[in-house]
Amino acid sequence: MAGITAAPFRLDNPSFVIDHDLAGGSASAVQLKCAGRRIAVTPDVDFEDVETWCNPKGEAPGAATWAIELEVLNSYGAAGLWNQLLPLAGVLVKFSLLPAGAVAVSATNPEMSGDCWVPYPTFVDAGVRKFTTYTLEFKVYGTPLFKDATPAVYSGHA
């Protein structure tokens, strides 16, 4: 029996970029690394009814939907999260996520890419002398691409 022997992965320098073209040269690309505190990429699989007389109460996995959840610290100004995301809210954009942003795509650093919907940012959600933190959920449109060999889909990861 084969076991899992690879070293565990620690997220130190991810690259999550939205609103870029496939060549990676779009001037409109938005890097969400410095606003981010935590990122999670999760599939949601609905089980479907496949019940038959030979398989009573049978279920089978259906289509998976993916979401990227990014916990952020809000900021304003020209380069702030609020002003970068608000014009894109509700828009379908290209995205790319590389766990180790400054490292080449490989089997130990796979890139996820595709299209996602940009959520509306929260304007403010804070207490007295507290920073505004909240979680954005980028719903992936269609099936994402997972790539484990160079070149990266987005060439501007850092």
Which key features would you list for this structure?
single chain; 158 residues; mainly beta; 7 strands; 3% helix; globular
Characterise the protein shown here.
By secondary structure, the protein is mostly beta strands. The chain has one domain. The protein is built from 1 helix and 7 strands; from the N terminus they run ββββαβββ. The protein has a 7-stranded antiparallel β-sheet, with no helix packed on it. The longest helix has 5 residues.
Number of strands: 7
| Poorly predicted parts | none
Helix count, per DSSP?
Answer: 1
Largest sheet: 7 strands, antiparallel
Helix content: under 10%
What does the radius of gyration come to? 18 Å
Strand residue content: 35-45%
What would a concise description of this structure say?
The chain is globular, with a radius of gyration of 18 Å. Helices cover 3% and strands 41% of the residues. It has 158 residues and is mainly beta.
